Amino acid sequence: MNEVYHIPAMLQQTVNGLNIQPNGTYVDVTFGGGGHSRAILERLGTDGRLFSMDQDIDAYHNECTQAHRQLADDSRWQFVHGNFRYLGNFMDYYGVQQIDGLLADLGVSFHHFDSPERGFSFRFPAPLDMRMNQNGGRTAADILNTYDEENLARVLYIYGELKQSRMLARKIITARQKASIFRTEELVAILGDDKKILTLVFQALRIEVNDELGALREMLLTAKTLLRKGGRISVLTYHSLEDRIVKNFLRSGNIEGNIEKDFYGNILTPFRVIEKGLSADEEEIIRNPRARSAKLRIAEKL
Ligand SMILES: C[S@@+](CC[C@H](N)C(=O)[O-])C[C@H]1O[C@@H](n2cnc3c(N)ncnc32)[C@H](O)[C@@H]1O
Fold it and tell me: What SS3 state is found at 284?
């Protein structure tokens, strides 16, 4: 396993945004290496509670740091292995009706990119897996070998924002007629070594494999009902597709981003927007270049 599981982005700003109440109940729906979770716990009193979710069990078994091991002994903390799209079911199971804050740091962790065998990176020869939850579901190879040309082009165009999506889809279809595609190095040989294109193709496949945008939409709707009045939601996004969903939702309270108004023209919204897309500062980006694309959005439930 790699030495650093993850370096949390915009740690202080994200956790400050939750305006933590020491005895409150909080959920970190993207535990990862636990950096944000540990910062929340530091601010909680003896009666506070923190649920940390991750659909990747590696996050729980992370042995990278001593601090991580200490979490398991903290009675205020509960790890939840599952997809955040089922947040409502998990909170029901634990008897939690309302929460004071929710943190989401979307996407994958360094652990995913830096673990060759998981297939998230074109830098390493590996099976084309890309599932965050390895217990089930289709892999990137399943998608590459079964989607028709139209569907492949759609995934590449929408999730990778690739203008050449049709041409790339054609190359994949032509290649797989000769032999199925199972490994990262095979895909690289088919598509060429333009790193920009490969980055976006791998991003698109990852988003499709994990239905990242579908899960995000469902989680946001649940968060709206779980948050108590005055409760905060703090979300870090890493690409424009997920950022647009979060931005529209926090502005309007619905997935479509429809702004509703009352008879007098006052905007009807369940949230007060507090942070509208804050970026990491230069000093942080030098220390942690992967924070460059992070955008922070925070809102309070009215
Ligand atoms: C960017 S990392 C979070 C890093 C974390 N904030 C930290 O400080 O180390 C995102 C994590 O969320 C998890 N994840 C992504 N989508 C998820 C989902 N739908 N349900 C549960 N966990 C998810 C990933 O497995 C990954 O570990």
Answer: helix
